[in-house]
């Protein structure tokens, strides 16, 4: 047996930066589609310096909430404030300089090269001083998302996991204060899941805000500062991983018995389904 390359993911999570402020605030946000409420009365603050994970069963409203918070989706009730100003009062270009969004489905159908896709993340910065950092931003994003070997490939010819990492690189290249990631780890192998979450944490600790939808509760628990749990369009709980991920709450939300295991007393929880 030999050691595998790569940095091990052990070690404690670095502390919150002391400079942390509420950058985004949802007040009583509700979304109705086809006459049916799919998100009800969500109140939520997003702070710089934190990773906020959104979890919950399929159809719970996670993507809808992410869309409402990012300004990509219209909501019917309430308000979302970015630095105290309503999202709807920002111009599209201003929003693109404040937040980047990795959507659940990769929307690209034209056979762009991977390097062209990543470079799209720089579009909001054309004709600004930040455009000087272009090459550096792209190189860093490519390295973080581990897609250097794919840059001359066509996006449409990549596997699902490779596409997800290229889309992540585009979002990272955008270098925004707020980063929204909808299931960025869904198609990824174990190592790349950890890489993406480590990169998210590093962004947060560098003073950004990361809002990430995850299905893997143990992964969310390991990396998130706070977890918001959605069920049936409602934000059922929000708090630290240990506060939110109790066996009772997870069992009720998913309709499945689970055991919440702490590898060491007080450590972040690991959630295991109860099996016969
Ligand atoms: P999640 O991301 O948690 O799986 P979504 O936010 O995508 O859930 O969707 C929440 C619910 O709203 C689901 O029942 C979904 O079918 C419904 N929904 C989402 N978008 C629309 C839409 N445009 N029209 C009608 N129903 C929708
Ligand atoms: Mg979704």
From TrEMBL:
<dbReference type="InterPro" id="IPR003593">
    <property type="entry name" value="AAA+_ATPase"/>
</dbReference>
<feature type="domain" description="ABC transporter">
    <location>
        <begin position="24"/>
        <end position="257"/>
    </location>
</feature>
<dbReference type="GO" id="GO:0016887">
    <property type="term" value="F:ATP hydrolysis activity"/>
</dbReference>
<dbReference type="GO" id="GO:0005524">
    <property type="term" value="F:ATP binding"/>
</dbReference>
<keyword id="KW-0547">Nucleotide-binding</keyword>
<dbReference type="Pfam" id="PF00005">
    <property type="entry name" value="ABC_tran"/>
</dbReference>
<dbReference type="InterPro" id="IPR027417">
    <property type="entry name" value="P-loop_NTPase"/>
</dbReference>
<keyword id="KW-0813">Transport</keyword>
<keyword id="KW-1278">Translocase</keyword>
<protein>
    <submittedName>
        <fullName>Iron complex transport system ATP-binding protein</fullName>
    </submittedName>
</protein>
<keyword id="KW-0067">ATP-binding</keyword>
<dbReference type="InterPro" id="IPR003439">
    <property type="entry name" value="ABC_transporter-like_ATP-bd"/>
</dbReference>
<dbReference type="InterPro" id="IPR017871">
    <property type="entry name" value="ABC_transporter-like_CS"/>
</dbReference>
């Amino acid at each position: 047996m030999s050691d595998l390359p790569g940095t091990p993911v052990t070690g404690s999570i670095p502390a919150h930066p002391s400079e942390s402020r509420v950058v985004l605030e949802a007040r009583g946000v509700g979304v109705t589609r086809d006459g049916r409420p799919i998100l009800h009365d969500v109140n939520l603050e997003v702070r710089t310096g934190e990773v906020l994970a959104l979890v919950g069963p399929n159809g719970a409203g996670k993507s809808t909430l992410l869309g409402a918070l990012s300004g990509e989706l219209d909501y019917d009730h309430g308000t979302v404030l970015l630095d105290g100003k309503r999202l709807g009062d920002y111009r599209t270009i201003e929003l693109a300089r404040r937040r980047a969004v990795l959507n659940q489905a990769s929307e690209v159908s034209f056979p762009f090269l991977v390097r062209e896709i990543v470079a799209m993340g720089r579009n909001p910065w054309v004709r600004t001083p930040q455009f000087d950092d272009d090459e550096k931003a792209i190189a860093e994003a490519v390295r973080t998302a581990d897609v250097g070997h794919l840059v001359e490939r066509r996006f449409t010819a990549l596997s699902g996991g490779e596409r997800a990492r290229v889309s992540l690189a585009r979002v990272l290249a955008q270098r925004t204060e707020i980063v929204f990631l909808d299931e960025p780890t869904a198609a990824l192998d174990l190592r790349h899941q950890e890489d993406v979450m480590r990169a998210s944490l590093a962004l947060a600790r560098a003073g950004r805000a990361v809002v990430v939808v995850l299905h893997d509760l143990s992964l969310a628990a390991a990396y998130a500062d706070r977890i918001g749990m959605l069920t049936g369009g409602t934000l059922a709980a929000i708090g630290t991983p240990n506060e939110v991920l109790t066996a009772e709450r997870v069992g009720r939300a998913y309709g499945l018995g689970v055991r919440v295991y702490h590898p060491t007393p007080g450590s972040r929880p690991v959630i295991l389904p109860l099996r016969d």
